[in-house]
Amino acid sequence: QEFGHFVGTVVLGLPVALLLGIKREAIGATFSVGREPSLAIIGERYGMDSPEGRGVLAEYLTGTLFGALFIAIVAGFIASLGIFHPNSLAMGSGIGSGSMMAAAAGAIAAQQTPEVAKEVMTLAAASNLITTTIGTYFTLFISLPLAVWGYRVLEPLIGRITKASMTDEGLRHSDVSLEVPELGWAGKISAWLAAGALALIANYVGYKTLSADAFTGMGIMIFCAFVGEALCNLIRRKIPAVCMVSLVAMFLTSPACPWAAEIARMTSSINMLAVITPMLTFAGLSIAKDLPAFRRLGWRIVLVSFLANFGTFIGAVLIAEMFH
User: Fold this and answer.
1) Number of domains in the chain
2) Residue 20 in contact with residue 160, Cβ under 8 Å?
3) Are residues 211 and 144 in the same domain?
4) Could you tell me the CA-to-CA distances from 208 to 123, 200, 231, 271 in Å, in that order?
């Protein structure tokens, strides 16, 4: 299922991006549907001020603004053709975004009987949960390396020079690297504390919540980041930090942890969007100098983002149909 979700984005999006003259931004825009975990992965691997960072942020913004509407139209149209079983379409709807999943599943369910519609919504929610959890690791270890490999192979063959590829950096396909700039512990802890403080402020401004549970919940989140980073260093960064942090967080809220219920209650007092706000702010500040590059990408990156969203949907639908 995850193979269909994430490989579909690369298979459809990457060749078109290269034909349109998009360079390394194509990696960030096509290795996934560009939701929050993808921002974290690219931010750790390349930095948000890199071409890959611009690509994933463009994908994120496109999905946020138009993703739900686009996927609802696509899912509804494909469902109306009667080619695929509704359950297969439901499995394809769980692409890792709650709003896009709801839009796609709703468009499919609207064309079914009440009994089938309930099953569609259930399967879509289950698929979305799988994509949000297992999909993060699939993205790290399969789809991102696949996108990098595909770029290195295809760029010399079908890559074009257009207005979108005229960057100031003069980097070629051979310059793609997975090296990550190092940051000391003092810098990391300062960044976590600053992000936590900004998230608490955003939580209060946006959702009028600034309770003791919110402070404790933020402390738990920072603790997860600290432990995950420490474990990552312990294994000499053979596994990315975002993977280790998510594993620590999932353990703390799993039945294996005796305090799971309390931890879940306290962390749930912080709205997810409040946590995302500082991250997007930092990303925006870091890429402000690259606004000319965004303008050069223009409509091309939007088209590639739509293709990536379509690819993840239809890829998962095809896989589900094979095993239906």
Assistant:
1) 2
2) yes
3) no
4) 34, 10, 35, 10
